[in-house]
Design brief:
Shape: globular
Distance between the termini: 10 Å
Bound molecules: NADP nicotinamide-adenine-dinucleotide phosphate
Helix content: 25-40%
Oligomer: single chain
Number of strands: 15
Radius of gyration: 19 Å
CATH class of the largest domain: Alpha Beta
CATH architecture of the largest domain: Alpha-Beta Complex
Order of helices and strands: EEEHEEEEHHEHEHEHEHEHEHEHE
Strand content: 25-35%
């Protein structure tokens, strides 16, 4: 099969495109012929900082396509089914192997490209805000990185939960576009002080929950923006810099810091039901996810570079 692969960490240029052996179909696995491959924020972060294993490493978490073959113990799927699947690697390829428990049927009326970008973005946002973030109607939530895939999903879920939604992005034009997804107040992180703006919007109290998708130095501002006993969701590090907390920082602000790792829970009945609900909401139009641009899989270097450097709005996908 044709696939994208790399053997060392680095920028998009470390990726090559060429012939690789087909993935092995496991007894409890599904082999999918990919039609739409989502480029996830985690794919970029992995390429930058996670040592590739095995080498050469085929990156990618999530893709949608048609079931080509199933292992002997599979009961939920058969060849020809339209599915989207998660796995820890391997989606940047013509064929993608995933365990049955990480594979989800796509409803007939849902566009396959839209399905390819949905489970991780909306599932992660839901867990950060609702399942573990305990967001309540009337609370203030700050979403750092509101124009990305998880960010746009988070804006919609937070608004639907009855919260006042503050989001950050790199330009006023992007913030304006996010408004139609439910953003109440935008903060341009390039020329505004996030903490000052949040304190002013909350009458000096601070926000109740901050969802950090960017990491890096911005984390300090999120901590300042939170109220005492506020909740900080450690979700992502789109800046490529992993944030950390000191003991006195936690005590001084009386913070509740919690982590989200959707991939570790995607096999559970809870997340499978959540994904079915996400699909239903995409079908009835309550959720939206713009697809900023579509690249050929053979142009993966340009596609990753676009995500890393051009500030796409929503998701970028590739087609084999
Ligand atoms: N823990 C989990 O289970 C989990 C699941 C999914 C994703 N993630 C992580 O979450 C992060 C976001 O994922 P994604 O798929 O949404 O990525 P994405 O679509 O590439 O979006 C990244 C966002 O980060 C923003 N950003 C970049 N630099 C920033 C800065 N200095 N300050 C504030 N915002 C900044 C960008 O905003 P602008 O374009 O406006 O600059 C963009 O909206 C990634 O690090 C990913 O690994 C974690």
């Amino acid at each position: 099969m044709k696939a994208v692969f790399y053997s060392e960490n680095g920028g998009p240029e470390v990726m090559q495109y060429g012939e690789r052996p087909d993935p092995t179909l496991q007894d409890d696995g599904v082999l999918i012929r990919s039609e739409a491959i989502s480029i996830e924020g985690g794919d970029l972060l992995n390429r930058l900082i996670s040592p590739p294993d095995p080498v050469p490493f085929i990156p990618g978490y999530q893709a949608a396509g048609i079931v080509e073959a199933v292992g002997p113990s599979i009961t939920l799927f058969q060849p020809g089914d339209r599915v989207v699947a998660f796995n820890w690697c391997g989606s940047h390829a013509e064929l993608f192997a995933a365990p049955e428990c990480f594979t989800y049927a796509i409803p007939e009326s849902l566009d396959i490209a839209l399905a390819s970008v949905a489970p991780i973005a909306f599932g992660t946002a839901y867990d950060a805000l609702i399942e573990y973030g305990n967001l309540q109607p009337g609370e203030f939530v700050l979403i750092q990185g509101a124009g990305g895939g998880v960010g746009l999903a988070a804006v919609q879920i937070a608004k639907a939960a009855g919260a006042t939604v503050i989001g950050t992005s790199s330009s006023n034009e992007r913030l304006e576009r996010i408004r139609s997804f439910g953003l109440d107040y935008g903060v341009n992180y390039r020329d505004e002080d996030i903490a000052e703006k949040c304190l002013s919007l909350t009458g000096g109290s601070g926000v109740d929950l901050a969802v950090d998708l960017a990491g890096g130095k911005g984390k300090e501002l999120l901590v300042k923006a939170l109220r005492p006993h506020g909740r900080y969701a450690a979700v992502g590090a789109a800046t490529g810099e992993i944030p950390s907390f000191s003991f006195f920082e936690l005590i001084g602000e009386m913070l509740h810091v919690f982590g989200v790792s959707l991939g570790q829970e995607m096999h559970t009945g809870r997340v499978r039901a959540l994904v079915a609900d996400i699909f239903a909401k995409l079908e009835d139009g309550s959720y939206r996810m713009p697809i900023d641009k579509t690249f050929a899989l053979s142009d993966a270097v340009a596609a990753h570079r676009h995500v890393a450097e051009s500030h796409p709005f929503g998701r970028v996908i590739m087609k084999p």
